[in-house]
Amino acid sequence: MTELMQGPHVPLVFAAVAAFCVTVYVLADGLDLGVGIVFLAAPREEDRDLMMATIEPVWDGNETWLVMGGTLLLAAFPAGYYVLLPAFYLPIMFMLFALIFRGIAFEFRLQATRYRFLWDIAFAAGSIVATLCQGLVLGGLIEGVPMENGMFAGGPFSFLSVLGLLCGVGLIGGYALIGAGWLIWKTQGPTQVFAREIARAALILTAVLMALVSAWSPLAVPEVAARWFSFPNLLLLAPVPLVTAGVLVAIWRGIWEGAEPRTFLLALAVFALGLVGLVVSLWPYVVPRQVTVWDGAADPQTLAFIAVGLAIILPVVLAYQAHAYWVFRGKTTAHGTGYGGAH
Questions:
Q1: What letter would DSSP give residue 4?
Q2: Which of 28, 74, 164, 200 could covalently link to 136 via disulfide, CB atoms 3.0 to 4.6 Å apart?
Q3: Residues 326-340: tens digit of each pLDDT
């Protein structure tokens, strides 16, 4: 087994699996974070109850992918983790606290009879803070982190940047779009009408922030400009922004056309395309422009141990997640009354 972990392709496989876990987390948890972001904008208590009921069976399973992706990065690429963790201590800690706070608010709101509005505020605030922190980390990764002698050489607030704030606000808009698309698919009546209205506002915010981040990144980071605008990369990579623009237009047209799953699936496609752009900008580094996936990979014995664990755990988590979404398919009618498609 250890011999199989010694080829130059092995770090690429683990990087691909880690990217897969992060992508699934962003797409899956994006929908329940998005529901939390738009939560307080819902006009009626009944709308908020129904919104909660749509994500209740799946939201905790979605966050499993954050744990899996983070653990895989720690184990398979310790050199990268050794530098990136101190670089982003504060936003990561605030994100984890926000996710915990949000989970507590979720559970307590279901039982609360008095001061329920306080748990509503806590759930929405936790969703927004967690998303903003993810954006700050994303912006910091694109800009890169300072290193000296193989260690992080910046300060506790080095992650703060204009690009990070733009990414944070953009993620808030993007997750809100996914959440609204999910609600259009899973609800009906006044709650669905609210979701369509909030989806249009979220789409405008997402499109504007994607344009700003796409313009600011090459201005702030010359290596990103060279990656995207050198020849022939310019021609090879042009389909990514063009397809993204086409998908955004398709979402705008689809919001009011009645094809209910389409807004949600196209919103997921926008995020998938954004992640493709991120990989293009950062490839092939674990620590941007400092440590490559080959230099940052763990030793073959460790990778062999991780491979055995992944071969057992990954199919189980995938099967569990797919089963949860299948069992609770169909429209959510109201909290406690089940799903239209459930058996």
A1: G
A2: 164
A3: 988 888 876 554 444
